[in-house]
Amino acid sequence: MLPPTHQRRFITCTVVAAAFGLVSTQSFAASSDTRPRPAQAHHQTAIGRQHIKAVHAGDAMSAFAAEGDEDGADEAENSAEATAQFTEARTAPGVVAPGAYGAAWQQLQSMRHTSGSWDHVTKKPYDSDDPRYRDVNSNSSGGAGQVTGRITGIAADGQGYVYAGGANGGVFRSTTGGGHWKPIADKLPSLSTGTLALDGGNRLWYATGESNTGATSFVGTGVYVLQDPRHGQFQPGDRVGGAELESTVIHALRFAGTKVWAATSSGVWSHSTTTLSGPWKQEFAPNPDYLPGGSKADDPSAPYKNIANDIAVDPKDPDKVLLAVGWRGGDTYNGLYAKQADGSWRQASGLGDLPTSSDDVGNMTFAAAADGSRLYAVDQSPAQTAANPDSGLKGVYVSKSGSPFGPWTLIADYTKLKASGSALQGDGYQPGIQSWYNQFLQVDPADADHLYLGLEEVFETKNGGSTWTTPGPYWNFPFPCWSIDPAKQTGDCSPTTHSDQHAVAIGSYKGKTWAYVGNDGGIYRRPLNGAVDSGGHAKDWQSLSDGTLDTLQYYSVGVGKDLAGGGVSVTGGLQDNGQSILRGHDKVMGSDFGGDGGDTIADPANGCNIAEEYVYLDMWVTQNCGVNDGSWTTDPAKATEYEVAPPDKDQGGAGARFIAPITADAKITSTWIAGGRHVWVNPKGFAIRSGKEWTNAYDLGEGHVATAVASSGGTVYVGWCGPCNNQGFTRGIAVGNADGTGWHQLNLPVDGTVPNRYVSGFDIDPADAQHVFVAVNGFSRKWTEGPGAGFGHVFESRNGGADWTDVSANLPDVPADTVKLLPNGGLAIGTDLATFYRPAGATEWEVLGHALPSTAVMQLRLGPDGKLYAATHGRGIWSFDVRRLKGRKN
Is 108 helix (H, G, I), strand (E, B) or coil? Predict the structure, then answer.
């Protein structure tokens, strides 16, 4: 029996430098298409399609037998576009100056709120293996179990207190060794987690600014310290130092004596741990001219020129420090740096097996034994990442002296790890292929030879690296124990973790010591010396994503009536966690589509009619919520999920954005619009069964791709960009009819009313299709240096786009992602900080309701229940009953 479609396309890519502008809320923005852009973590695989082909052909095929098809080779392009897209929207047409996000947050604090509170819809367990949803395009039965969004920081103590940091969700605390989580950082201006650490005094240090150089990594506002983490909550006044680390990402915090070291995207800094006031000290920046205020600060490559990844301090002499510095895509300054007698830093060499050349020092992580007897390192090689289609991992190393200056010995490379029980055996995707994105190391405090290693999977050695096991394989699909039918899985097929490892910690609770790991699917634990099966796979992982920890990163939300159970069904597309579905009276969410979930269309009249986008307009449709017991594997006719992608899907980034816009007409719900290079129209609604049933209504032009679409009564508005990065950024709006007539480009001069920034959303007045609102992303000209950056975030037209009026008024200057006209005539706008509301007839904005965390609101949708639903990229889906809003004029 064969596994379902495993929508996690393997990477066979060349990873080299790309501009990541440390700006606004985003850290990594592609500033020029003239340089290849980095791979990133949206790595759905073509394996599933191979399995489908084999099933339909009646072949018997072992798992992962045919990964190396042409689809895998497309992943370099896929990953590059994914990395660029999210940040281009916030930075183009120029480089955003530091301070933009902080200024917007400060203004937000003084704004008036409407009455009413948001309800947390997705505060429920999310079972990625829900047996109800095992149709063709699902990853259910892979073994990851209950999941949440990416966890990028973990700290744990010896009394059962565990702290988990979401990629853009803030910090949560558990008092029971994991589970029953409560947020403790929601009052901070940034919920983006770089790392978490407990110091010797049991204070919790929270470094903001996610350290993964992926597509949706948000910058932070510095480092915060919570004196009593077991009981307190972070406050803005808990920040260490001044604004020196604002608008950076922080890769690591390391403590030595009375000093804390910080490895950041603007070099290495230090601060006293006893006196928390006073500025951070810049210890080392390899290219200071490229820092803000420097003579080369406006160079497109500036954000890459001062990246520090980790710090290793000699336990016997805190003055002996080794810095791991360099951009994961490669640069001449990459290397290991040691401090000289004259106070300068110079590249080290001759450390044994540990690479020191700029070609081979990329993303690097250190881990020291508690007794100082061992120091370990894992290294990603830029050269190998560029040349080796199977892995970018140079190796894992140990210094048996405990000194960062070695001598170092190689204890594992990707081939050794591959042979240690890894699920990643196929060409193009082997251990360490994403070592630029996936890294952690943790030494057992009681045993210096016992080490946990995180890459795409979790590895473990108990003898200092002589031998390894894979207690947390990528998933269970390739193993003989696996079956899509739970009753047919053998006892050896134990739950595993979600893939893509980012954080690790060791803690104790009620006499038991646990290893905690954080990844793209949340946080898991197992006994530190846990049990494994004959293949070296752990038998004792427990997911700690019990529903109280919601760090889910949604791109979209759809709502429809639940005809079977009553109430509504809520669905949405997620970063690396597929498509979630929560039916009317469910106590647990399920996943009916796998991989990355993009935009969504849900039938308001029947919530089991769902269309979801995977990536690049690769659309799928179901009319039964994706309910399937997996019987399609033996009888293909029993599949009820259908691929219906329009032709632009086959062109990758040239044909559509990574997360491309799709929508149903507000009045003619069977008419769908999908935006790539072309404007595609489907007149069959959920009855569509093939990508050939789309009609090309309009060609946006070579190099242009849609960023937003809306349709009402057959009148269609499409926002587009191209080029979409800082080099020659161009945007536009096309208007026409769904039947292909009347199409034209609006006259939007660069210096006109609508800024020359990314068009992120529309909404059309249901009473008049000529009355339309548009949301514009990015920051205003105050912060953005590019041509035509302009001002404003919300614009209104009453004549079909011929003329526009800026209605932003008192909105904070923050990227706007989505706009929605409400039934009461009011207007709602979702931004990277909050959702705002303007009552009918008013001009001024106020914050909509209370209790919504300060994270990015990617999409607003009205449900058939009269509620407004917000898809946030870091804290799940929330709803607000807009029927209770009282009209008021300013």
Answer: helix
SS3 string, 244-309, reads CCECCCEEEEEEECCEEEEEEECEEEEEECCCCCCCCEEEECCCHHHCCCCCCCCCCCHHHCCCEE
Q: How many CA atoms lie within 13 A of 444 on its CB side?
A: 18
DSSP assignment letter at 632? G
Beta strands in 787-876 (DSSP E): 794-797, 805-806, 816-821, 827-831, 835-838, 846-847, 857-862, 867-872
- CA atoms of 431 and 39, how far apart (whole Å): 15
Residue with tokens 């048996």: 400
Asked whether the beta carbons of 33 and 824 are under 8 A apart, the reply is no
Of 92, 88, 3, 110, which Cα lies nearest the Cα of 49?
3
Beta carbons within 8 Å of 24's beta carbon, 6+ residues apart: 90, 91, 96, 100, 101, 219, 778, 779, 783, 814, 815, 832
CB 673 within 8 A of CB 716: yes
Cα–Cα distance, 609 to 592 (Å, whole number) = 12
**What are the backbone dihedrals phi and psi of residue 267, each rounded to the nearest 5 degrees, phi first?**
95, -165
Q: Please state the φ and ψ torsions of residue 686, each to the nearest 5 degrees.
A: -75, -5
Q: Who contacts 388 (Cβ-Cβ below 8 Å, separation ≥6)? A: none
Cβ neighbours for 739, distance < 8 A, ≥ 6 positions apart: 681, 697, 714
In angstroms, the CA 817 to CA 859 distance is: 7
Which 8-state DSSP code applies to residue 219?
A: P
Tell me the three-class secondary structure of 678-734, residue by residue.
EEEEECCHHHCCCHHHCEEEEECCCCCEEEEEEEECCEEEEEEECCCCCCCCCEEEE
First to last CA, the chain: 65
CA distances from 19 to 33, 84, 98, 300 (A): 9, 9, 16, 7
For 56, the 3-state DSSP assignment is helix
pTM for this entry: 0.92
State the 10-residue block means of pLDDT for the chain, 890 residues long. Answer: 40 26 29 25 29 28 26 36 69 81 91 97 98 95 96 97 97 98 96 96 96 67 97 97 91 96 97 97 97 85 91 94 95 96 93 97 97 97 96 98 97 98 96 95 98 98 98 96 91 93 97 97 98 95 97 97 95 95 96 94 98 95 97 95 96 90 97 98 98 98 97 98 89 98 95 93 98 96 89 98 97 97 97 96 97 95 98 98 74
CA distance 502 to 212: 8
The helix or strand, by DSSP H or E, that contains position 47, with its residue range, turns out to be helix 47-57
Helix (H) or strand (E) holding 48: helix 47-57
What pLDDT is stored for residue 214 in this prediction? 52
Dist CA 796 CA 488 (whole Å)? 58
pLDDT at 83: 52
Nearby residues of 564 by Cβ (< 8 Å), 6 or more positions away: 583, 584, 608
CA dist 826 and 886 (Å) reads 10
CB 756 within 8 A of CB 750: yes
How many of the other CB atoms lie within 10 Å of CB of 597? 30
Sheet arrangement for strand 641-643 = 600-603, 606-613, 619-622, 641-643
Contact 572, 611 (CB under 8 A): no
Distance CA 385, CA 357 (A): 15
- Closest by alpha carbon to 149, among 164, 130, 129? 164
Neighbours of 295 (CB within 10 A): 10
Q: How many residues does the chain have?
A: 890
Give Dmax (Cα) for the chain.
Answer: 76
Tokens of 414: 């990707």
Q: Cα-atom radius of gyration of the chain, to the nearest Å?
A: 26
